[in-house]
TrEMBL record:
Gene3D superfamilies: YVTN repeat-like/Quinoprotein amine dehydrogenase (2.130.10.10). This is Anaphase-promoting complex subunit 4 WD40 domain-containing protein. Residues 8-22 have a biased composition (Low complexity). Transmembrane segments: none annotated. SMART domains: WD40. Residues 1-22 are annotated as: Disordered. It comes from the Eukaryota. Keywords: Repeat, WD repeat. InterPro entries: WD40/YVTN_repeat-like_dom_sf, WD40_repeat_dom_sf, WD40_rpt. The lineage of its organism: Eukaryota, Haptista, Haptophyta, Prymnesiophyceae, Isochrysidales.
């Protein structure tokens, strides 16, 4: 049975008087070749000290692009299609996964853009979430009112969890807007104004947080879950404190 409640911080300061650290952003470059609105992007290398070349994949209303940076060289490859909503990197680092507005997840060669496999996650709903869960090729996908697990090596769906809207839902349905994963925790932001926490191996629902969320993310270095709300704010939750208190705002 899923629990309803809140997660709270344990050691993160909550006082509004605590000064926020300053962050300066400077535009370094502009990536050419991508047309139209950009819906999602992801880098292939999370550690910039890695010896592997950096690759950035982006998708949007007029297809997608992959840029490869190797030393001073830069190469651009187009990903054909329209209304590509989400993108993530395959565990092998040589392919990208794109999710479309038509419910298809395509496995594409990052060097050529060619499609090697297509996973049909939905027939009429958009794919709004893609998260690789393991180096062995387990993929979590959010499509329509479902979260699904796929075996990329066999191009087979292994599990599916369907959502229903909460009684206090602020929007129609329970469509997945965004997903994020870390370890056994899989978070899904839904259109009904809730944040659902699932077991990433079984898709059993662990908790429902009443937090109108449009996007969600989980810190890779601390037990913090983040979501953005309709008012433009970001809420932080402590994953160690399930069922008590309010989020850090």
């Amino acid at each position: 049975m899923a629990r309803r409640g809140h997660l709270v911080p344990s050691s993160v300061p909550t006082s509004s008087s605590d000064p926020a650290p300053a962050l300066t952003l400077r535009k370094e470059d502009k990536l050419a070749g991508h047309n139209g609105r950009v819906f999602d992007l992801q880098a292939s290398v999370k550690d910039l000290s890695s010896s592997q070349p950096l690759r950035i994949a982006a998708v949007g209303e007029k297809g997608g692009s992959v840029w490869t940076f190797d030393g001073g060289a830069r190469r651009h490859v187009r990903l054909p299609g329209t209304e590509l909503m989400r993108v993530c990197w395959h565990p092998d680092g040589e392919h990208v996964l794109t999710g479309s507005a038509e419910g298809a997840i395509c496995v594409r060669d990052a060097s050529s853009g060619q499609t090697s496999a297509t996973l049909q996650a939905a027939r009429e709903d958009e794919v709004y979430g893609l998260e690789v869960l393991s180096e062995e090729g387990l993929l979590a996908a959010g499509a329509g009112e479902t979260v699904q697990l796929w075996d990329l090596n066999r191009a087979t769906r292994t599990s599916l969890a369907a959502f229903t809207a909460t009684e206090s839902g602020v929007h129609f349905g329970a469509f997945v807007f965004s997903i994020a994963a870390r370890g056994r925790i899989l978070s899904a932001a839904l259109s009904d104004g809730s944040l659902r926490l699932l077991d990433s191996e079984t898709l059993q629902e662990l908790a429902t947080l009443c937090a109108p969320a449009l996007a969600t993310a989980i810190s890779p270095t601390s037990p913090l879950l983040a979501c953005s709300d309709r008012a433009g704010g970001v809420l932080l939750w402590d994953l160690r404190q399930l069922g008590r208190g309010e989020p850090i705002r």
